[in-house]
Amino acid sequence: MTDNQLSRRAFAGWIAAGAAAPLIVASDAVEAAQASKDVKSPAITERLLELVRQQYPDPRLDDAGIAEIREELEAQIARTARLSGFPLTNADEPAFVFRAHRREEDRR
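RESULT FIELD:
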């Protein structure tokens, strides 16, 4: 075998390493996101408040208004976290019964 040729085993190793690289990077990103989940809550609230200030630059929006908006945002984030933590499966769905509407004439 010359230096320019690659064995099948080496080629398969290169392919496996290339295929596994995105998975390793993705798992590292998921771990980092889970580790920073607790730290994100205040940062998310502050980012959303800054977004409100940018989209609604009104001089009537004082500190009391910002405090009220902050409370609502924190409550919404807490509700979101609580709902996201509730385990659901594909079998969990609304229980409704479909009944076709029939006219009085058709019921006879």
